[in-house]
Predict the structure.
Amino acid sequence: MAKFLILKTGALGDLSFLLPAVDQIRKRDPQARITWIVGNTYAALLRKHPGIQQVITVNEKNLFHKSIFLRCYEALKLWLHLDSRYDQIWIGHRTLSALLLLRLRVFGKIYQLTRAPSPLLSFFRNEVMIPPLSTQEGLGFKKLTEKALQCSITLPDWQEADTSWIPSYCGLQPQESHRPAIVIHVGGGANQKTEFELKKWPHWGHFLRELARTTSDDIILVGAPNEQDEIQRIFATLESPNTQDTKNIKDTQLLIQKRLISQVGKTSILELLSLLKSAKFFIGVDSGPLHWADSFGIPSIGIYGPTSSISWGLLGKKSRVLFHSVPCSPCYRDNGIFPICSFHHRCMTDLSPKAVMDLFVNSMLSLKE
């Protein structure tokens, strides 16, 4: 029985990029035992996955804390749960600390994504080089999987991972008919280190008002608990239309009263994914919900600005990315740091609601063809 150890603590979108590897391991070795080290936020989700035999949780806040004492304390707790040897150890983080965390405790062949070759560290790991802003993250993990398993994986095989363990409906939709809805993520996403303010698109209120006039579908808003303030701002915009157009006001009132429902901060991770899986269409910024919807094959529109549509783009045939090209974008360089914006957030503020609506309409038309 081959033993695999995978270290990928989060975030939600990153898990969607790497989880297809579980299917590939078990396809080649049905008896393999897979252990996954994950942050406590997503442990309950991975425990639902039938292909993962053991889930070990870590407190990410401690693991990434500035205090050396807290980091060492969390590492020691983790080490107590690990076996001494694994056939293969996969590290889904590019940092030296992630390598040391396991190399100092367990034996086995280590495979790790890297931004650049390291002649010294290559003695302690098998490197899979993915230069910054060059390859979609999921395809980077596909490359790591191919090297570790010594095989070639087609893109359809990688994308069509088993998601039967995630229910397709979780009872959150507003209509008794359970008809599919348009799901929208209105926040910017976050991880244990920071909230991604620069990812936020400021025109959701105006877009939703126009969407009410374009479609009769139900609309469900999703997001994390810390994004509820964003919802309040959006509803304030909707309730105060800057127009005397009677039809526009009527459509907006109908949208708020009957067709618009907020599930922001109200769902578990599994409920969120269940809702995404049953969606008719998804629209959101570069964040976890977008990438899960794309992995489910849901037609999606990804709104990009500070992050690269190459590194974190969409692979689904029915998905599209949209960005307003400015010289400073993308400013995030896959180094964990979002720089302070000195250009009035133009990559997002200058991306108009009309541009998103036009792409949505065109996408819906192409789906009917």
Observations:
- The mean pLDDT is 88.
- The CA atoms of residues 265 and 280 lie 21 Å apart.
- The domain at 182-368 is CATH 3.40.50.2000 (Rossmann fold).
